[in-house]
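Entry 12.
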Amino acid sequence: MLLTLTTTHSPATDLGYLLHKNPQRLHRFELPFGHAWVLFPEASGERCTAVLLVELDTVSLVQGKGSPRRRSRFDYVSDRPYVASSFLSVAIGRVFGSALAGSSRERPELAGTPIDLEAKLDVVGARGGEEFVRGVFEPLGYEVSVTPLTDAYVSIRLRRRCTLQNLLTHLYVLIPVLDDDKHYWIGDEEVDKLLRRGGDWLASHPRRDQIVDRYLKHRAPLRRAALAQLIEAEDEPEAADDPEGRGHAEATLEERVGLHEQRLDAVVDVIRRRKARRVLDLGCGEGKLIARLLKERDIDEVLGLEVSSTTLGIAELRLRVDQMPERQLARLKLVQGSLTYRDARLEGFDAAAVLEVIEHLEPWRLPAFASAVLGHAKPTCVLITTPNADYNALFATLPAGEFRHPDHQFEWTRAEFEDWSNAVASTYGYMVEFDAIGEIDPKLGGPTQMAVFLR
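Predicted 3D structure (tokens):
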């Protein structure tokens, strides 16, 4: 398996100092599972390339597994010797340990200086395909090129101006995440390793939950422990890891206008004015609206519904359910369920909030959503917010025609949202009012649009 690192920093041969490797030599290393070599196929003042080549001892790996048994020839045939995986991640830690730690004896000032870097992984097992690869690296500021090789494998080229430590750290964590097949047993120390390597960028990453889940081999107790600490880190102000603003995640786009907080304020204000005492948060996510609602003394009950059990677990951690006073805990219910199915648990509430949810549904599911919420659960007041596609033209970093978030199935203009809302209101016996949230543009409206349905 191969990892290629290239820089055009001047002088480019400084890459040798950063890696603690002489470009004029071939370097060989013993690994627990084979051997590694570092070589420099080019090393000039204008351009320098280092190659990490890892060769697995596949026979020893197979014969060392568990108790003796009769083996077939198929035990010795796999993609592991050729595909970038956790073996390569371990090799990075062993061979480039000083660079991974951000230290350089000969060029200490350069170790902390962003330089132009390129990394290439010739073969990667990418479960989730190109979309997942881009979703992992682009929010970190990388220019990403993906070449499909087969249904299961891709070649990846990454470019970014950053420190070598940042690049190696991201590769160290994310290579086994892409492959999703770690070769070794993991325990609590793996959580510590993930937090140590990802603590300054992972907490705010839009794919945080998937990264943590895959890195910890889908082990729920370890995942919960890691997410609990990352959530605490996310709540603290941190420097952005994407200074050039290349990531187009919705949170990054909208952060500049404080839109998330404005949405919460607007929804809570309507619920307060409607004097609602029993409130639904449908698609409650990590519980940020619920935290606001529990501060309202006149609200007797808050029920949060979410389709993802993992996200519900994060909501419990963020809300510190295990530390809640008994009286506060009696006001809260967190349940797993879908917005497109009838659910008796949702009946009899005064208000329901559906914040930035409908755009994640396929359009053909919208009639089922409207039937389940407005036709069956029938809250007295339903608040629905969704992005205003008209406003997207004002986001400088959002290319024309793209959505604010890769998971959005659609984004409606104000006219489209009003047409759908009026039709739904007429069908299920509601009247509907519209409002804009965020800074209002005279021609394009607000970044978020809200419909308030009243029975």
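Annotation: The first strand starts at residue 2 and ends at 7. The radius of gyration is 26 Å.
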